[in-house]
Amino acid sequence: MSTDSAVSTEARDAAYDLAVVLADTEFISAHRYSEWGMLGAPSIEEDIALSSVIQDELGHGRAAYKAAADLGETSVDDLLYERSVDEWRSPTVLDSQLDNWAEIVASLAVLDYATVLVYENLQNSSVDELSGIAEKVLQEESQHIQHGHVWLGVFADESEGEYPKEELQAALDSFVPQVAQWLGRNDGNDVLLEAGVFERSNEQMREEFLSDISSLLESHGYDVPDVDLEWDEWDDQSRRPSPPESTFEETVDEVTGRQHRYLAG
């Protein structure tokens, strides 16, 4: 695959930044889900379903790392093993372990939906490295979202005492605002838009995200969380207000296995 020769160096750099964000998001998502798989899922059937989600996320992450490596003229190994903890670009909502099954559901229903909106805007991208991975990701992520929607209904069912609705409401109160911000400042992807790398603005994506999520939550009787966006410390490259804390290094070590790689020489 090759990038349109008309794409500027600035746009190619911005496409690289986006590819790294997507790769880290998918890779860390898989890790957060794996911390529950085969241990904390509500049933064997759910263990199996979550294992499938984890495999999908790892595959998406690997594809996005390959795209980033090609765009940045680096290697997947360097992206995985050589970056310091403050260079990782996964969403703030994944900086720590997901505390309960409700947070898994919120991630599937909310974060995966936002990811789909981003990939939808890359299907006709002028950067082949990104458009080439969009179709497969969209097919699989859509299944993750539907799975999350089913569980929204389970938690909303008052007869299901095992799954308290207020637990999922708390998870949604955390995920919705952070993911809405993860979609970026309104003018934060102007370079991508002008170069045809992206089809819609961050503002348009966020409006669709908030409209659809609000309708979904209201249909199940959940409160729609307030979204108060602050951009003072925001970094467009990483789509974060600040780098991950140093404690995130343990997560990076676990998800990459890099400490074992170094021991192996």
From TrEMBL:
<dbReference type="GO" id="GO:0010124">
    <property type="term" value="P:phenylacetate catabolic process"/>
</dbReference>
<dbReference type="GO" id="GO:0005829">
    <property type="term" value="C:cytosol"/>
</dbReference>
<protein>
    <recommendedName>
        <fullName>Phenylacetate-CoA oxygenase subunit PaaI</fullName>
    </recommendedName>
</protein>
<feature type="region of interest" description="Disordered">
    <location>
        <begin position="234"/>
        <end position="256"/>
    </location>
</feature>
<dbReference type="InterPro" id="IPR007814">
    <property type="entry name" value="PaaA_PaaC"/>
</dbReference>
<dbReference type="InterPro" id="IPR009078">
    <property type="entry name" value="Ferritin-like_SF"/>
</dbReference>
<dbReference type="Pfam" id="PF05138">
    <property type="entry name" value="PaaA_PaaC"/>
</dbReference>
<dbReference type="InterPro" id="IPR012347">
    <property type="entry name" value="Ferritin-like"/>
</dbReference>
<dbReference type="InterPro" id="IPR052703">
    <property type="entry name" value="Aromatic_CoA_ox/epox"/>
</dbReference>
